[in-house]
Design goal:
Length: 247
């Protein structure tokens, strides 16, 4: 199975504390990998190290078989990132926001126009092209944030809590869009505090705590680890970590 991401013996230290402790894992081509863990488990630090946004103390990170680094722009062009905090320009319309972010990677105007329309359709923003961010509901604003992050059709996408505090309609739209991205060939790393989303979306799950993987597998494989009959993923998470996913 082809690996899109390979992390080997990753260590990230802050003074005397290890935020990431000899972490090793792979992300396979075409899968949605759920990255779960209680607050402070190392999820965000891991992602920032993979994206070369943080320097790490030790280890190796490869993306698409190449060494990742801050100057690896050929790799970064193939990556889409949607962080939890919405990052768009309030003075630009929905269409112009997507055009701006897509234009960072796609210079041909005809191609970019098609990519923008595809992103708008994927996120269900057809009726809001001329709206500015302040005119959008929280759910629509999150959809715009996603559209800006994936409009250039990246092969690897990081989605950090993309459905937090959104209405049910937007949540369903976002989840359907993520499935379509995977079906179209994207590899996705997904973090969330909603276990039902993990069950719906993720092919494989890594549970982190204190910078280490303490369990991994499919949803059914993780449930089999529990001593509770008919255990849910929440039950498994609480048994393994001693903590609630939302804390």
């Amino acid at each position: 199975m082809e690996n899109v991401i390979e992390v080997k013996n990753l260590v990230k230290e802050y003074k005397q504390k290890r935020a990431i402790d000899e972490l090793s894992f792979e992300v396979h081509k075409g899968e949605i990998l759920g990255l779960l863990g209680p607050n402070g488990s190392g999820k965000s630090t891991t992602i920032n190290c993979i994206l070369a946004l943080l320097k790490y103390s030790k280890g190796d990170i490869k993306i698409f078989g190449k060494e990742m680094s801050p100057s690896a722009y050929d790799i970064k062009r193939e990556i889409g990132v949607v962080f939890q905090d919405v990052a768009v320009f309030n003075e630009l319309s929905v269409y112009d926001n997507i055009n701006y972010f897509c234009g960072l990677y796609v210079k041909d105007k005809a191609t970019r126009k098609q990519y923008i329309e595809d992103a708008i359709e994927l996120t269900g923003l057809e009726d809001y092209k001329k709206f500015r961010p302040k005119q959008l509901s929280g759910g629509l604003l999150r959809r715009l944030n996603i559209a800006c992050g994936i409009a250039h059709k990246p092969h690897l996408i990081f989605l950090d809590e993309p459905t937090v505090a959104v209405d049910p309609q937007s949540r369903n739209n976002i989840l359907d869009g993520i499935k379509k991205l995977r079906d179209d060939g994207a590899t996705i790393v997904y973090t969330t505090h909603y276990m039902e989303e993990v069950e719906i979306l993720c092919d494989r799950i890594l549970i982190l705590d204190k910078g280490k993987i303490i369990a991994q597998g499919s949803s059914s494989e993780l449930k089999a680890l529990s001593h509770i009959e008919n255990a849910t993923l929440n039950d498994v998470f609480l048994e393994i970590t001693g903590k609630e996913l939302r804390d």
